[in-house]
Amino acid sequence: MAPKDKLTEYERKRLETIRRNDEMVAALKIPSKASQLTGTAKRQRVSVEESKSYKPTTEKKSEPAFVNRRSLRTRGMPPEGVGGVPVLEKVSPRVEGPLSMAAAHDGAGCNGTLVATLLSINKNPQIVSPPVKAESAGGEVVKKEEAEYGVSFDSARVKTEGCNVGMKEEKKDVESLLDLGSMKLETDNIAKVVTGNVMNVKFLPCSDLRMVVVGSKSGQVGFWNMDSTRDDDDHQNGVVHLYRPHTGPIGAILFHESCFSKIITSCYDGYIRMMDAEKEVFELVHHGDDGIFCLSRRPNDDKSLYFGEGLGGLTVFDDKMGKVSSQWFPHEDRINTIHFNPRNPNIMATASKDKTARIWDLRCVGSGQPRCLKMVSHNRAVNSAYFSPSGCSLATTSLDDHVGIHSGIDFEDNCMIPHDNQTGRWISKFRAIWGWGDAYIFIGNKKNGVDVISPVENRVVTTLKGSEIIAIPCRFDAHPHRVGMLAGGTGGGQVYVWTSS
């Protein structure tokens, strides 16, 4: 240390402060007390360790078996509980086999009553109106295939001379029966059918009974019999029968064309089940490791099921043989909808999350998959692609806030109609559907209404509203036998049914 006479004034003050602090610590006897506490803590630790009577063992602990877990993202399934959305508390177990209707019953309605109702319908087969006859521009009836289906493809091109005539005739007939201004929502036609978000809503294709079948995000399937009356004091309109045969979102609902007591449902959990009311069981039709996001069937064909599986896969299941007959990958991401041309079952449309919708000819198979006749591109995922009742137009709905109308020869006439399609995570994505002809398209809006789009005017011509609507209708279905009867499901499980006078 340097002599004090060589220290600066600052250094001398520093040393003086250190000296005073040392004297203060010594007066408080802090070092001796700290050593006493340290010794006490060491003695306590030693006594506790000595009191333990354990014996060293050479046995190895059994390690848990390795489980190959796959995330929901890699399986193409949406996440649960994201963004504050609660996961529903009740989830049915995955049953590897038949599931009785009694075991799947979810507390609402009477199982025996629903079974009796569906079986009584089967004893009275429905009469389906014949397809519109198509004529050529010269007035001559076209060949049998075109007259039956109204549209055909010749060398991957649409032969539209007869198609356009058929479309105009159908539009004229429907427009003379339907008045948009007369479509009203009565309080008796509102019911809460399921407890969660509505994924699918379908009318039972029956002319003498008003029944709506609803699939929810939690795996519920609800049957709303609008023509039944309740015996209790509940203000619920009609009678609801509720089941939970699946563990995830319902991807699609299909009806057996010749037997209404058989209803097929698909689920994001990879299961396809068929409810057989006569046997009172949900039969297991197919199950796989990947999610099933959509399901469809060719018109007049009860043998095969077409469903979108995993990331871009399309699988054909032979129901009669009970196995997969073919599979291909027409898209790069999950397929949201599969729809067949109502007048030509050989033509199929698919909508995908890969921002495209495509039209396929199932008769032209090359390189392991059908030939793509037309590809429609959007800037974001395509939620749906549906043919019009005449088969001459295709409507696509995309997250890029557009509804596309594609018609004409080879569907080359394209028109993109602006529409706000952003629904967020709370409700199902909007899907524009056709009405009872080619005149109108129906799609929900975020102001608790239903926008009606005219393909002729390429704009929204009116909006169905009502003071009774308390939620956003997101998924729709038009009754196949009652013009003007439209059902819309919401994110809260409610179903609204509009009717026309």
UniProtKB/TrEMBL annotation:
<comment type="similarity">
    <text>Belongs to the WD repeat DDB2/WDR76 family.</text>
</comment>
<dbReference type="InterPro" id="IPR015943">
    <property type="entry name" value="WD40/YVTN_repeat-like_dom_sf"/>
</dbReference>
<dbReference type="GO" id="GO:0003677">
    <property type="term" value="F:DNA binding"/>
</dbReference>
<dbReference type="Pfam" id="PF00400">
    <property type="entry name" value="WD40"/>
</dbReference>
<keyword id="KW-0227">DNA damage</keyword>
<dbReference type="GO" id="GO:0006974">
    <property type="term" value="P:DNA damage response"/>
</dbReference>
<protein>
    <recommendedName>
        <fullName>WD repeat-containing protein 76</fullName>
    </recommendedName>
</protein>
<dbReference type="InterPro" id="IPR001680">
    <property type="entry name" value="WD40_rpt"/>
</dbReference>
<feature type="compositionally biased region" description="Basic and acidic residues">
    <location>
        <begin position="46"/>
        <end position="63"/>
    </location>
</feature>
<dbReference type="GO" id="GO:0005634">
    <property type="term" value="C:nucleus"/>
</dbReference>
<dbReference type="InterPro" id="IPR050853">
    <property type="entry name" value="WD_repeat_DNA-damage-binding"/>
</dbReference>
<feature type="region of interest" description="Disordered">
    <location>
        <begin position="33"/>
        <end position="65"/>
    </location>
</feature>
<dbReference type="GO" id="GO:2000001">
    <property type="term" value="P:regulation of DNA damage checkpoint"/>
</dbReference>
<keyword id="KW-0677">Repeat</keyword>
<dbReference type="InterPro" id="IPR036322">
    <property type="entry name" value="WD40_repeat_dom_sf"/>
</dbReference>
<comment type="function">
    <text>Specifically binds 5-hydroxymethylcytosine (5hmC), suggesting that it acts as a specific reader of 5hmC.</text>
</comment>
<keyword id="KW-0853">WD repeat</keyword>
<keyword id="KW-0238">DNA-binding</keyword>
<feature type="repeat" description="WD">
    <location>
        <begin position="328"/>
        <end position="363"/>
    </location>
</feature>
<dbReference type="InterPro" id="IPR019775">
    <property type="entry name" value="WD40_repeat_CS"/>
</dbReference>
